[in-house]
Structures are given as structure tokens and as C-alpha cells.
Write a structure and sequence with these properties.
The chain is of the alpha/beta class. The protein is 35% helix and 26% strand. The chain is built from ten helices and eleven strands. It has helices spanning 58-64, 93-99, 114-124, 130-143, 147-150, 163-176, 193-206, 219-225, 243-248, 253-260; strands at 10-11, 18-29, 32-43, 47-51, 74-81, 84-85, 100-103, 181-185, 211-215, 228-233, 236-242. The chain has a seven-stranded mixed β-sheet, with helices on both faces. Helix 6 runs parallel beside helix 7. 44% of the residues are buried.
Length: 264
């Protein structure tokens, strides 16, 4: 029998400018109902962390936000971006992903040079001007706090980078497309503490230009970098509030138990 009630929730409604939001988002893997009625608002130029135990639905939810789950699941409800429900069949998902970009759990640099990792997608989207490409390479690598480490090695293989550098390159690759929203699925889970600290510093700097939504299993990380935090449990969003409130004064027992380590 489920220990916690799904009827009792504490979901903050925001009055500030939103980057995107979901209304009654539900996800089905065949007959398996994996996500229930998730309604969340994401404020512009802020970091929102999605926390919860493994299998709670946070990564499933994140992947819906730029339609990454389309081929493997049925997604119902609204995903609203720039006053448009992008969860409609008529929507061009490739256009969506220009604006809402994703960085995955494990670094996945292309088997190309560092420079080409940044320019490949830009060229695919019709940017051929060498000056613009060079400027975008430098600016995106600077944004990801990687420029000083690789500026003399831009034509070397990205596969030679360390794990932390490779993940920052993947962030730079996303930033190069100048999206509005950055989605990150546990971007530091495979990294050492020093690399993790650099990723966190990078994200806090990127917040000035981008809206960031990050799935993390590391509660200390959420408390350090996130402005807002949502707690997921068994496919339900039970609590969403300012991060400080979630960690110091949660309103829902499941959240309190998870934060305090009495969960399960």
C-alpha cells in the first residue's frame, strides 16, 4: 500500500514571467501510466531542479519538454512555450529543439574536432559565414567555462577531453544554437567533485541568458544552484516551491521524508 497520498500537493503558481509550462501532462508507455497530471510553471532566467527517487518520473517529464519521448510513449496534456502548445502533432519538433535544447546524463561529444562539435549544427542550419562561426565557437565555449582550456586545441578530437570537459563541451554545443531553454538530465552524475563544481558554476552563469531545468539526484546540488525545486514521486509532482522552502520548510510529508533521508 502506498505510504503517501497523491491527493495532497503543494504546487506553487508563479506570477513572474514564464519561459514555459505544462498543464495536466500525462505520459503512457503502452498501458503503463508513468506520469500523472503534471502542471508546472518554469520562470524565465531561473534554474529549476527536478528531484525525486529513481523511477519517480523526473527524467520522463524532462524529456517531454522538447518532445524527446515522442517515439517511445504517448504524451497527453499541454506543453506551452511562447503561448503555443508544442505538444500538438502539427508542431515541427526540430524547430522546438532549436529553442529548447537538451544535455544528457553522459557526455556525448561527436567524433569530430572540438571546433566541429560547435559548428556542425550551425552549418546544418545554414550558418556558413566563417566569422560568425568563429565568434559562436568562442562565445559558446566561454559560456561553458571551457574556452581557456581548449582555445589552442580546437582542431583536436573532442573524444580526447576529460569527462568534465566533454560535458561542458556538450553544454557549449547546446548554447551555440542560442536556445531559450536548456534541459539537463543529471549532467554531473558521472563526474568527479571538481568537474561537478565547474558544471554548477557554468549553469549559474548561464542563467543570465537562459532558462535552465535540471534533473538531479544530488539534493545538495539542487539546494546550491536551483531557484525553484519540484519533488516527484511515483509519476506525481507532489511539491513545487522556491528551493529554500523545499529544503527548509516542505509542506508535504513525502517531500520532508525524502529531504531528511527517511524516505521509502
Amino acid at each position: 500500500m502506498e505510504k503517501y497520498s497523491f491527493e495532497e500537493t503543494n504546487i506553487l503558481k508563479l506570477s513572474r514571467k514564464l519561459a514555459m509550462e505544462t498543464e495536466n501532462l500525462q505520459v503512457f508507455y503502452g498501458a503503463n501510466h508513468a506520469m500523472f497530471d503534471a502542471s508546472l510553471q518554469f520562470p524565465k532566467n531561473r534554474i529549476t531542479a527536478l528531484i525525486g527517487a529513481s523511477g519517480s518520473g523526473k527524467s520522463t517529464y524532462l524529456r517531454c519538454l522538447n518532445r524527446m519521448n515522442d517515439r517511445i510513449s504517448t504524451v497527453k496534456g499541454k506543453i506551452i512555450y511562447q503561448d503555443t502548445d508544442i505538444n500538438q502533432k502539427s508542431i515541427n519538433v526540430y524547430e522546438v529543439r532549436k529553442h529548447i535544447s537538451m544535455v544528457f546524463q553522459r557526455p556525448n561529444p561527436f567524433a569530430k574536432s572540438i571546433r566541429e562539435n560547435i559548428t556542425f549544427a550551425l552549418k546544418e542550419h545554414g550558418i556558413k559565414d566563417k566569422e560568425i562561426l568563429a565568434e559562436r565557437v568562442e562565445s559558446s565555449l566561454r559560456s561553458a567555462a571551457l574556452w581557456d582550456e581548449v582555445k589552442d586545441d580546437l582542431d583536436k578530437s573532442a573524444l580526447a577531453l576529460s569527462g568534465g570537459q566533454a560535458q561542458r563541451l556538450c553544454i557549449a554545443r547546446s548554447v551555440a544554437m542560442q536556445p531559450d531553454v536548456l534541459l539537463l538530465d543529471e549532467p554531473a552524475s558521472a563526474l568527479d567533485p571538481i568537474s561537478t563544481a565547474k558544471i554548477e558554476e557554468t549553469l549559474q552563469n548561464l542563467r543570465e541568458k537562459y532558462t535552465i531545468i535540471i534533473v538531479t539526484h544530488n539534493m545538495q546540488q539542487a539546494s546550491r544552484i536551483a531557484d525553484y525545486t519540484a519533488f516527484f514521486h511515483m509519476g506525481h509532482v507532489l511539491e513545487y516551491d522556491k528551493t529554500n522552502n523545499i529544503f527548509t520548510n516542505p509542506k508535504i510529508k513525502a517531500t520532508e521524508d525524502y529531504i531528511s533521508g527517511n524516505f521509502g
